[in-house]
Design goal:
By secondary structure, this protein is α+β, with helices and mostly antiparallel strands. It is globular and about 75 Å long. The chain contains nine helices and 16 strands. Strand 1 and strand 2 form a beta hairpin. The structure holds biotin. The site of biotin has 18 residues, from helix 5, strand 5, strand 10 and strand 11.
Length: 354
């Protein structure tokens, strides 16, 4: 009932009488009062005025937790089974434990803090409390294991779309949207590059700095060689913070750009909503045919010089978007193109990270 009360108070944006809440939830006035007291303890600012009722005063950063997430997530499937932890070793590790216990497709694991957050290439992922969004999505797709890596790109697209949906609400000074709704800073209009975009294959960058990392882990069923489950872990820098020394200058938080607090629960809902739609498009063709256009539109490398760090030899070229199977198409100086596979190589901009 707690999350429903928050949802209702948020929808109304004005006083809702105790009587109405009692009738709606079929409980006594005392039960409503008790639930409201608990919500206040959770951190919600709820004003109770005699003869008028209850009013929710929102503060995007104040509250995070199970009730808040349940009151925000409006998807059909993704996140309808939800686990929240104030602190956990890693949401990816926890999602894998839950998967082994039989948790269903679409399960989402969220934590306010991780004590052993994991990044790619065996690195850690700094995960302080109260600032960032850490979550893992558990999927059980009926697709060949070789196609699973494309789902990381699907998540990158959904994260970029989710961030843009939440940030577009108030455009910071100096920003504007193009005809196709791309958010760009005024000064960069000529370049036509999106401010919030994807660095292939799956980093989300804002103004050339990393705002999000994605780590996908796959578990195959030994007997059939098919996918048992897949965990896609997402870490997003939401609030401005002191980044670890090695990330300074390369990392950015969403609220630095938005110039206002960003609600982590609202952001998660926006991402899961986008993912649900994109995942449906992916499953329809089992590749990125329906998503390539949207992905390319958000690709910050598009049309730019990139350096491909291939262990067999580095080379430079111009990024020309992705294949429908997720490889980056790189045009070489001689005019030929090469498909670059994620995992084997990484790509750097000639003039920096992007
Ligand atoms: C990267 O190195 O870019 C990937 C970072 C992925 C971090 C996220 S935070 C939520 C989930 N749980 C983890 O332990 N890692 C991922």
């Amino acid at each position: 009932m707690k999350s429903e009360i928050i949802t209702l108070l948020r929808q109304r944006g004005t006083y809702v009488s105790g009587q109405e809440l009692c009738e709606r939830f079929g409980v006594s006035r005392t039960a409503v009062w008790k639930a409201v007291e608990q919500l206040k303890k959770d951190g919600y600012q709820i004003e109770a005025v005699k003869n008028r009722g209850y009013l929710l005063k929102e503060d995007a950063t104040r509250v995070f937790g199970r009730t808040e997430l349940e009151s925000r997530i409006k998807t059909d499937r993704m996140g309808q089974t939800l686990y929240y932890y104030d602190s956990i070793d890693s949401t990816n590790i926890q999602a894998k434990r839950l998967a082994e216990e039989g948790a269903p497709d679409g399960t989402v694991v969220v934590a306010d803090q991780q004590s052993a957050g994991r990044g790619r290439r065996g690195r850690g992922w700094a995960s302080p409390a109260g600032t960032n969004l850490y979550f893992s999505l558990l999927l059980r797709p009926d697709i060949a294991p070789g196609k699973a890596s494309m789902l990381t790109l699907v998540m990158a697209l959904a994260v970029a779309q989710g961030i843009r949906a939440v940030m577009n609400e108030t455009l910071p000074a100096g920003m504007q949207t193009t005809e196709d709704s791309t958010l760009v800073p005024t000064a960069k209009m000529e370049e036509g590059l999106p401010l919030v975009g994807i660095k292939w294959p799956n980093d989300i960058v804002i103004d050339g700095r990393k705002a999000c990392g994605i780590l996908t882990e796959l578990s195959l069923s030994v007997e059939q060689g098919s996918i048992d489950y897949l965990v896609i872990g997402v870490g997003i820098n939401v609030a401005k913070q002191e980044f670890p020394a090695e990330l300074q200058g390369h990392a950015i938080a969403l609220d630095e750009v938005a110039n206002r607090p960003i609600s982590r629960s609202e952001l998660l809902n926006a991402i899961l909503t986008a993912f649900e739609a994109d995942y449906g498009d992916f499953l329809a063709t089992e590749d990125l045919t329906r998503l390539k256009g949207q992905y390319d539109a958000l690709l910050v490398n598009y049309g730019r010089q990139v350096r491909v760090l291939d262990p067999k030899g580095e080379y430079d070229g111009i990024a020309r978007g992705i294949q429908t199977t997720g490889e980056l198409i790189v045009e070489l100086p001689d005019g030929n193109t090469k498909d670059v596979y994620a995992g084997e190589v990484s790509v750097r901009g000639i003039y920096g990270y992007v």
